[in-house]
Amino acid sequence: MTRLVIFTDLDGTLLDHYSYSAEPARQAWEAARAGGVPCIFNTSKTRAEVEQLQQKLGIDGPYIVENGASVWFPGDTDLPLPPDVQSAGDSYCKLLSVPRGEILDVLKPLRHEFSFRSLSDMSVAELMERTGLERQQAVLAANREFSEPLVWQDSEDALKECEKRLARHNLHLVRGGRFHHVIGACDKGQAMSWLLAVYQKAFGDAITSVALGDSDNDVDMLSAADIPVVVRSPAHAPPAIPNRPEVCITSSCGPEGWSEAVTSILVREGITAPQ
Ligand SMILES: [Mg+2]
């Protein structure tokens, strides 16, 4: 038997780009959960934001934060955790990146050569204005542990040069829906593959991975998935997925598109009956 595991981006994918609502996708994720299909958030958001969102949506289980920088498991997880997973408070964590402090140290001298604004320069009020988040949400979003979001204010050529400079320190620059993110040598695809191996061990069956995302920072995850789904964005063109000409692009945007894709995959895989 093949088991399905869903990995999903949040902003602009499960959550509406403007309102951050996931409600239009509720029926689809509840159908997935009822069918025993894990639904794993794989996001640029922080741990504090994801924990709150999981609670609000009634979704539990492991999740991936800050563009693949770390994988988190609840303390009562049934999954067989590999030996390199650390205990962290009442959770377990697999680190795939460096701490944010190291990233800020590398960015410091680059400020004299390139024009950008980083999260560490922004007040909560500025972050609220740039993201449309409420104050409490913006505070959680600012609580980053493994990455630094940037607003790029320089040319595309300068951006390429800055990427090269960061690469010398083994750091990457990825483009999200609103910000560029400086992260360690990790990405959403590597983190997904790492977590899939844990599920593989737990299930012992063949696993079919589904990944849903809307932006460039989802491309690694989408490329590595068995069933990649590009969720249409109201804010930018769908990213190209190299070597995946069959990739499905949803007709609707955000959570409506998520619902459309997941509903049809659950039916196709025999997990739910056709309506
Ligand atoms: Mg997104």
What would you note in describing this structure?
The chain folds into 2 domains: 2-96 and 187-268, Rossmann fold; 100-183, Putative mannosyl-3-phosphoglycerate phosphatase, domain 2 (Threonyl-tRNA Synthetase, Chain A, domain 2, 2-Layer Sandwich), CATH 3.30.980.20. It is globular. α4 crosses α5. The two termini are 23 Å apart. It has 275 residues and is of the alpha/beta class. A 5-stranded parallel sheet has the order 2-1-11-12-13. The longest helix is centred in the last third of the chain and has 16 residues, at 188-203. The protein has helices at residues 26-34, 47-57, 100-110, 124-131, 135-142, 156-167, 188-203, 219-224, 254-268, and strands spanning 2-8, 39-41, 63-65, 70-74, 86-88, 91-95, 116-118, 147-152, 172-175, 180-183, 206-213, 227-232, 248-253. The site of magnesium ion has 7 residues, from loops.
* Helix fraction by DSSP (H/I, runs of at least 4): 25-40%
Please name the CATH topology of the largest domain: Rossmann fold
Estimate the strand proportion: 15-25%
CATH architecture of the largest domain: 3-Layer(aba) Sandwich
**Average pLDDT number:** 94
Order of helices and strands: EHEHEEEEHEHHEHEEHEHEEH
Number of strands: 13
**Main sheet?**
5 strands, parallel
Bound small-molecule species:
magnesium ion
Instruction: Identify the CATH homologous superfamily of the largest domain.
Output: HAD superfamily/HAD-like
What spatial form do the alpha-carbon principal axes imply? globular
Summed up, the domain count is 2
* Low-confidence spans: none
For the biggest β-sheet, the strand order reads 2-1-11-12-13
Q: Structural class of the secondary structure composition?
A: alpha/beta
**CATH top-level class of the largest domain:** Alpha Beta
Cα(first) to Cα(last) distance is 23 Å
Q: Provide a count of the helices.
A: 9
* Rg (C-alpha, Å): 18 Å
